[in-house]
Design goal:
By secondary structure, the protein is α/β, with parallel strands linked by helices. About 35% of the residues lie in helices and about 25% in strands. The chain has a single domain, classed as Rossmann fold (3-Layer(aba) Sandwich), CATH 3.40.50. Strands 3-2-1-4-5-7-6 form a seven-stranded mixed β-sheet. The longest helix is centred in the last third of the chain and has 17 residues, at about 145-160.
């Protein structure tokens, strides 16, 4: 890992992912998490304050970045919930949990960065209980071709600067290809956000 990835990217991503429009998106989905919850790519713990303690039995916070995990632990400590979170320092492609052990899996602004997203979603299907669900809010490929054109042009430069973030991944298509059905999915462009990075979709996905 080079110095940019170790020292700059965690701070850059933490700041960008805590913008007001993105926090509004998190607020739309996180409070609906229930039971045993697995958060994929917890980052610096940006979602932690939105979980409803009356609904969440246990939270597994998965994150492969050592720098991000340090921030997440500090966030949990500041919120007084450090003892209620089990941190998993690993990638989403190999989740160290038993089959059918999780009620809710959280994906917020992370599918864009996972190197092998197909493996990650396969693991999600494996750990979900019957009747379990994904709650997601993700950014990705815009439906407007003039914006999508710029996303494709900018992505090769954007990715190494933004921790591997892809601008052109299609969240709906990815979930459906992985065998999930979307429920009440909504889309919009985030306000006060460059459109190349601001087309978002959110909702619930369940195994089809």
């Amino acid at each position: 890992m080079n110095p940019w990835e170790r020292y700059v990217v965690p701070n850059l991503v933490s700041c960008a992912c805590a913008s007001k429009p993105m926090m509004k998106q998190r607020e739309k989905v996180i409070p609906h998490a229930e039971g045993k919850v697995l958060e994929i790519g917890c980052g610096s713990g940006t979602n932690f304050s939105y979980y409803d303690p009356d609904k969440v039995e246990h939270l597994y916070a998965l994150e492969p970045s050592e720098g991000m995990l340090k921030k997440a632990r500090r966030t949990a400590g500041a919120l007084g919930i450090g003892n209620n979170i089990e941190f998993l320092e690993t990638g989403a492609e190999a989740v160290p949990l038993e089959d059918h052990s999780i009620d809710t899996v959280i994906y917020t602004f992370v599918l864009c960065t996972i190197p092998d997203w197909k493996a990650a979603l396969t693991e999600t299907r494996r750990v979900l209980k019957p009747g379990g669900k994904i709650l997601f809010s993700e950014h990705g490929l815009a439906p407007d071709e003039n914006i999508a054109k710029w996303q494709r042009r900018v992505e090769p430069v954007w990715k190494p600067l933004a921790g591997g973030c892809h601008l052109t991944r299609d969240t709906r298509k990815m979930l459906e290809e992985a065998g999930f059905a979307l429920q009440d999915a909504k889309t919009m462009y985030l306000p006060s956000t460059p459109k190349i990075a601001g087309f978002v979709s959110w909702g619930t996905a369940v195994p089809a």
